[in-house]
TrEMBL record:
It comes from Chitinophaga flava. InterPro entries: DUF2279_periplasmic_lipo. It holds the Pfam family DUF2279. This is DUF2279 domain-containing protein.
Length: 233
C-alpha cells in the first residue's frame, strides 16, 4: 500500500502541475516534462528528508514508485496528449474492535476522518481508471465511462507485521489477524470528458477526477474470497 501511495502521489502532483503549466506559454513538451517531473521531485525531497529520520529512513523502492507515477503521467501526455489511464483514490471510514486494536488504530491513524483518510491503509483504495472511449472513438459507449481496477488492504496494524511494543514495554502480538490484499473491479466516471462551457465547472471536474466515483464493485482478496459491494468508495 505504501508503494501504491507513492505512485499515486507523484502522478497526482505532476498531473495538476501539468495543468497549471498549460497556461505558461511554454512549448508543449516542456510543459509536460516540467509539470510531470514536479511530482517526482516533490516526493523525492520528502524521501531524502525521511533519510535523516531514524523512524523512516531512505528507501530506493519508494523512489522507484515515485518514478513510476511520474512516468505514467509523462508517457501518456507524450503519446496521446491526454490521460487515458488515470490514477485515482478513494477512502471510507474503517471501524476497529473496541479495546487494544481500536487504541492502536487511533495511535497510528489519528481520530479525525481527514487524518485517517491520509494515514489509514485499511481505509484506502488506489485505482487505475481506464477511459474506454479514448481507446475506441467509434464505440457507442459514453465518453465519460471508465473501468477501474483497484488495490487495497485490510488487517494492517503496523508497517510490516501486527506486533508491537508500547511505551511501557508491553508486547502485543496480533499476528493471527491476516493482512489481506484486496483487488477491485468497478465502473467509474471521467469527469473531464463531460463537456461544459463554464470554466468553474471544468476546474471542479478536474478536482473531482482525482477521486473514484462510488459504484457497484467486485472484490477479490488474497484469501480467495469474492465479494460484491452494492456501492463501494
Amino acid at each position: 500500500m505504501d508503494k501504491a501511495g507513492h505512485i499515486f502521489s507523484a502522478y497526482f502532483e505532476g498531473k495538476y502541475s501539468r495543468e497549471m503549466w498549460r497556461w505558461s506559454g511554454l512549448p508543449r513538451k516542456q510543459q509536460i516534462w516540467i509539470g510531470g517531473l514536479s511530482g517526482f521531485t516533490y516526493q523525492s525531497v520528502i524521501e531524502v528528508l525521511d533519510g535523516f529520520s531514524e523512524e523512516w529512513g531512505f528507501s530506493w523502492s519508494d523512489m522507484g514508485a515515485n518514478a513510476i507515477g511520474s512516468a505514467l503521467l509523462i508517457s501518456q501526455e507524450l503519446a496521446w496528449d491526454e490521460q487515458r489511464i488515470q490514477l485515482k483514490f478513494s477512502t471510507h471510514p474503517a471501524t476497529y474492535p473496541e479495546g487494544i486494536l481500536d487504541d492502536k488504530a487511533r495511535q497510528l491513524f489519528g481520530q479525525s476522518f481527514p487524518a485517517r483518510a491520509l494515514k489509514d491503509y485499511n481505509a484506502q483504495t488506489y485505482w487505475a481508471s481506464v477511459n474506454l472511449y479514448s481507446f475506441n472513438k467509434n464505440t457507442w459507449l459514453p465518453r465519460w465511462l471508465n473501468i477501474a481496477v483497484g488495490y487495497g488492504a485490510d488487517g494492517m496494524y503496523g508497517g510490516r507485521d501486527n506486533t508491537w511494543t508500547d511505551a511501557h514495554g508491553v508486547k502485543y502480538d496480533y499476528s493471527g489477524i491476516p493482512r489481506i490484499r484486496q483487488f477491485y473491479l468497478s465502473p467509474d466516471i471521467d469527469f473531464t470528458k463531460i463537456r461544459s462551457r463554464k470554466k468553474g465547472i471544468r476546474v471542479l471536474f478536474q478536482v473531482l477526477n482525482m477521486m473514484k466515483f462510488p459504484a457497484p464493485t467486485l472484490e477479490i482478496n488474497s484469501l480467495g474470497k469474492v465479494k460484491l459491494h452494492a456501492i463501494y468508495f
